[in-house]
Every structure is written in structure tokens, then in C-alpha cells.
Design goal:
Layout: E1 2-3, E2 10-15, H1 19-32, E3 35-40, E4 42-43, H2 46-57, E5 66-67, H3 72-75, E6 79-85, H4 90-100, E7 104-108, E8 121-125, E9 136-139, H5 148-161, E10 169-173, H6 185-197, E11 203-207, H7 214-221, E12 227-229, H8 239-245, E13 248-252, H9 256-264, E14 269-273, H10 282-292, H11 305-314
Parallel strand pairs: 2-3, 2-6, 6-7, 7-8, 8-9, 10-11, 10-13, 11-12, 13-14
Antiparallel strand pairs: 1-3, 4-5
Helix pairs in contact: 5-8, 6-7
Length: about 325
């Protein structure tokens, strides 16, 4: 896969196959002003990944721990930066940048367990409590790869399905349970009743997701929405339109990617629907960090121009 936004200035994005990670790497490369190629890399085994932490601490680079794509060799001569997101790419990004020799290594998320000082730039979410180091750039949320053209296309697609007014659009984005969050019918009913009571005369629009439990989807389906997308029946994505058009966006709190997007784009007030389990886990820290910054329960939008400028300097660009 290739990106062609900035011809002549090239990065290699190493992906672990997870779309959320790859999209953050793409956003980072674009922010650096770099064209990019995307290649998938994987540790050969769980043992190989475990060994990478020890070897990195010892200053040993062992590319043989990873499976590299055959076409990588042809891409290396023009590479100015190696970018990766997530624990499946941290060691690989460092190893490849060292192998190329004149390429910088930049990663997104916090490479806990690896030697931080040997990365050129680390874009680390503040909720991970990153170390205060010259090469660590704190960011308040996940990076989002989308741009103005993406949202224009999303709004146009939405209007093909919904032709009504949007001047008072209120969007609801429903995720699903995970290891740090629950989602029950009773909890969702209370939240939906509150949203409808607080939104008289609004165009109430909702979307569920692939993670939404069937019984919760059935409950959502039973409410009198102006527009609804039930994911189990329809895979259309109305979220870009919700982000662009909504005056207020309700997002279940475990949906870190959707919260990041809502807090970065559009003009909506963003409200996190708190379905998080008790305890000081990273999802709780994430939401509280956004709230303290005025991005959740407020209309302030994330501006990373200063952080990206610092990252460019660290990457020699």
C-alpha cells in the first residue's frame, strides 16, 4: 500500500495489521509532510516479541526476530523516516531505521519496556503518563488520519440517505463492552432517556457498531430517532457526517478512537457516556484527560500544530 500526498519525501510505515494503529501512523506521516509506503511486519512468535524487550535493553538489534516483506529492500534507499504505532512495530521501527542508517525513527503510543532514548520521536498519549524526555511529545488523544475532503465525502453520502434538516442535529455513537467497560440494556436505556429528555426538537441520530451487543442494539432500535444506523443490518458509516454536522455528540466512553475524532474535528460539544468500570485504568485516564482539557463536556477542539512542529524538529524535517 502506498501514500502519494508528498512526492519525493518518503516514510516507511510499519503496520501490525491493526487498522487503528495504521491510521495513526498515516496521520503522523502526513503531519510530518512525508509521502509513505505501508508494509506489514510481525514478530515470528510471542517468544520473539518477549526477547525484543531484553535485547533492546542490551542495545542489540536482531532483525531476525521479525518477518519482513520481500519488497522492503527496494523501498529502503529513499526512506527518510520509519514510523510505527503499537507494540508490534516499536522494535521493528527502531531496527529498520538503524539498518537504513540515515533514517529517523518515530513512533506513536508509548513504547513502554523499550529504551526510550533510542527513538528519535515518540508521540505519546498523556493518559499513559509518559516520561518527561526531550524526544517524547505528549498528545491528548489518538491521532486521526481524516481530513476536510474525507468529511465532505461523508456528509454527501449521508445526505443521499437522509434529506431532512440538520440545523439541530444531535449524534449518538454507541460502541460496546471491553475489558474496562460494560454495556447493559438497563444502563443504555437510562442514557437514551436522558438524551431524549435533554434534546427537545433536535434531529436525534444514532449509530451502533460491530461491538454493540444485540440486546442493546434492539433497545436502540426501539427509540424514535430522526435517523438511525443499526450496524448488524447496515454497514454504512454515518460518523463522518455526525462529526461534521452535529451540535452535540454523545459517544460511549470506551470508544477512544471515536472520542478522539469527535474532539479533533467538527464543532460539536462532545459528551462521554460513562460506561467504564471502576478503577484507574487507561480508559478512565483518557476520558478524564480530555475532560480536564475542555475537549469532553465542552466544545474545545484538539490542535496539535505545536506538537507536530516539535515532532518535525526531532525527525530532522
Amino acid at each position: 500500500m502506498q501514500g502519494r500526498q508528498f512526492a519525493g519525501r518518503r516514510a516507511l510505515i510499519l503496520t501490525d495489521g491493526k487498522a487503528g494503529h495504521e491510521n495513526q501512523s498515516r496521520a503522523f506521516a502526513r503531519a510530518l509532510g512525508l509521502d509513505f509506503d505501508v508494509v506489514e511486519v510481525r514478530f515470528r512468535s510471542k517468544l520473539a516479541k518477549a526477547a525484543s524487550y531484553l535485547l533492546d535493553r542490551l542495545g542489540i538489534v536482531a532483525p531476525g526476530l521479525l518477518s519482513w516483506p520481500g519488497e522492503l529492500k527496494d523501498m529502503m534507499p529513499s526512506c527518510r523516516a520509519v514510523v510505527g504505532t503499537g507494540s508490534g512495530t516499536f522494535y521493528a521501527a527502531k531496527a529498520l531505521a538503524r539498518r537504513i542508517g540515515n533514517a529517523k525513527c518515530g513512533v506513536v503510543l508509548y513504547p513502554r519496556g523499550y529504551r526510550l532514548s533510542t527513538f528519535d520521536c515518540i508521540l505519546a498519549p498523556s493518559f499513559d503518563g509518559p516520561a518527561k524526555m526531550p524526544n517524547v511529545v505528549e498528545i491528548p488523544a489518538n491521532l486521526v488520519v481524516n481530513d476536510a475532503a474525507f468529511y465532505e465525502k461523508g456528509v454527501a453520502a449521508f445526505r443521499e440517505r437522509y434529506s431532512g434538516p440538520t440545523d439541530r442535529l444531535v449524534g449518538v455513537i454507541v460502541g460496546g463492552p471491553n475489558k474496562c467497560a460494560t454495556m447493559t440494556v438497563g444502563w443504555m436505556k437510562s442514557r437514551l432517556d436522558e438524551i431524549f429528555a435533554a434534546s427537545p426538537g433536535a434531529q436525534l441520530c444514532v449509530t451502533t457498531s460491530r461491538r454493540t451487543p444485540p440486546d442493546v442494539e434492539s433497545l436502540v432500535d426501539s427509540y424514535p430517532w430522526t435517523y438511525k444506523l443499526i450496524y448488524s443490518r447496515d454497514r454504512f458509516n454515518p460518523i463522518p457526517a455526525f462529526v461534521q454536522l452535529a451540535k452535540r455528540l454523545y459517544v460511549t466512553a470506551e470508544s477512544t478512537g471515536m472520542l478522539s475524532e469527535a474532539c479533533t474535528f467538527g464543532t460539536a460539544e462532545v459528551v462521554a457516556l460513562d460506561n467504564l468500570n471502576p478503577g484507574p485504568h487507561k480508559f478512565r485516564r483518557f476520558v478524564e484527560s480530555l475532560r480536564s482539557g475542555g475537549y469532553v463536556d465542552g466544545c474545545r477542539k484538539i490542535d496539535l500544530s505545536a506538537e507536530f512542529a516539535r515532532a518535525k524538529g526531532l525527525m530532522g524535517l
